[in-house]
Write a structure and sequence with these properties.
By secondary structure, this protein is an alpha+beta fold. The chain has one domain. It has 3 helices and 9 strands. The protein has helices spanning about 1-35, 40-50, 170-180, and strands spanning about 60, 70-75, 85-95, 100-115, 115-130, 130-135, 140, 145-155, 165-170. The protein has a 7-stranded antiparallel beta sheet, covered by helices on one side. Strands 6-7 form a two-stranded antiparallel sheet. Residues about 25-30 have low confidence and may be disordered.
């Protein structure tokens, strides 16, 4: 009986070591991406014409991106006046250690009420660093170096006091016009 108790203790000790090892690996991997594509990635952003990441923005890992077998994360601007247009945040999706896309979100002034609540118009500007097939979006193909500009607003539903959310693909010039209209910094020139 004494022998079994000793083996149980050793097994429990070994199990705890393995558990601590996995926790350590998870913690390291969670820190890797924000540093790899955080402030240290600003030179690459400037090179392609994306806005740089601000030092005071907070990072949060994104889980379960639909249709993407990758990871993701977002940096959120916590320093804004909610009653004015503002630069909301920056999101990335990546596959292992390769960045696929970066999106920048801006919130405008128009408000509209949907069945889900009151929302504001939004401009999302994305840049693709690598080729990508968006399985969630009817398998749309994006290519390395491609830009995407999407404007989200409300469309009044007939005979209702609610709005439907609609998305429009717009040009870089139209995106910059919206940013200037909202009093925000337009996109840097592309090289």
């Amino acid at each position: 009986m004494q022998v079994c108790d000793t083996n149980k203790g050793e097994l429990k000790h070994m199990r705890n070591k393995i558990l601590y090892f996995y926790i350590f690996i998870i913690l390291i991997s969670c820190e890797y991406i924000p540093h790899r594509y955080g402030l240290e990635f600003n030179d690459a952003r400037v090179e392609v014409g994306l806005p740089v990441l601000s030092e005071n923005w907070k990072y949060s890992k994104t889980y379960g991106i639909i249709g993407v077998e990758t990871g993701g994360g977002s940096w959120i601007n916590s320093d804004f006046d909610k009653d004015k247009p503002y630069y909301f945040g920056k999101s990335i999706i990546y596959n292992e250690d390769t960045i696929i896309r970066e999106s920048n979100s801006y919130i405008g002034t128009q408000r509209f009420t949907t069945l889900d609540g009151t929302l504001r118009e939004e401009l999302v500007i994305a840049y693709y660093f690598t080729d990508y097939i968006d399985n969630w979006n009817l398998e749309k193909q994006y290519y390395s170096g491609e830009w995407e500009y999407r404007y989200k607003t409300g469309r009044k539903l007939d005979n209702y006091n609610f709005y439907d959310i609609v998305y429009y693909s717009i040009t870089r010039e139209e995106a910059n016009s919206l940013l200037v209209l909202w009093g925000l910094q337009p996109l840097p020139e592309t090289k």
